[in-house]
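Exam revision sheet. Question 4 asks you to relate a sequence to its structure. Input first:
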Amino acid sequence: MDEIEVIQHCRGGDKSAFEEIYQEYAQKALRTAFLMTNHYSLAEDAVQETFVQVWRSIHELRDTHAFRAWFFRILVNRVSQLGKRDGKNTHLPLETAEEKPDQRSLEPEDQVERNEELQRVQEAISLLPKPHRVTVILRYYSELSEAEISESLGIPTGTVKSRLHFARERLQEQLSKNESKHRLTGLKEKREAQE
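Answer key, structure tokens:
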């Protein structure tokens, strides 16, 4: 079954169809919520509440083709409603196991470098203003189109484009700055090791 058929079955109360939706969206939703909050437990709660609301409300979804935008609108609202709460920051990878390159093919130094690079990207994203951070996360990590982001956030497509442009510039500046610091630290460590 394609996703539209699965959603239609789910609207009819089919729990196995809902399980398929869960399998398809859970990992991406958790990563999205974590990147928005930087709190693993808060992200888990938001995802759990999102799926509960999806199950309860899916029969109200008029356009099954708009499911992704509808789903992420619920997720973004859930994250916002839960707000900030005390919790332990826990590293959640920016990529799932399916997206990672075969770790056996990477040399240990390459693995460390890749992990450091992902950490720098995550830190740079966390420094963006919230509206821009959410827009970037939905576009590049949740893989929503600009139109779907517009629908999810309830903002014009032009605003989505503007936020993405601003965010890309800020990320490029931040990552360039971090790369310079990283290079200087590496040179310093090499010099100290040689002495």
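Marking note for examiners. The radius of gyration is 19 Å.
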